[in-house]
Amino acid sequence: MAPHKGNDYLLFREAVQGLLRGDFTRLEPLFDDQSCPDRHKCCILDWYEKGYFDQEPMALDEALTCACFLGRTSIADFLLAQGVDPSAGAGTGLNGFHWAANRGQLETIKLLIQRKMPLETKSMYGGTVLGTAVWSAINEPKPNHIAIIEALINAGARLDAVGYPTENERVDEVLRRYGAKAQAR
Prior knowledge:
The protein has nine helices and no strands. It is mainly alpha-helical. α3 packs antiparallel against α4 and α7 (about 130-140) runs antiparallel to α8.
């Protein structure tokens, strides 16, 4: 691949550093439609199509994770269709599935379930995706957390991967409804 020149590639190099640092919130504009000048797509997809990510596989993995974090389901779907490893991109300690659960991104969760993402993969903190959703529903609640917990359980996530009872009435009601058993403390 020929060396790249110009402001577009300089912006890409800066984005790579941000992706590798897990600076996902700051990178959000690069995932928005029409962020690419003269195109009706986001910079991330434009750079993928230009081959900029060819020599940056770790940054591409993190781009998928960032898309999941931000709830950019169509971008996550595109990257998965291109063969980006759905379990990679855990430079922040969580992969895209964990981040989607944490951030309350229900549509992205549904896509990842449909794509048969592994439900029991653990983050660097030892939590499964369901465990991350439960922790987030209690500590950083978002409107879709309960629906995410239900979607994960319906997809086959193991209830014994989360501590029950949680001391959170809404979360405990859902876990109880799906058959959670009290764990010794």
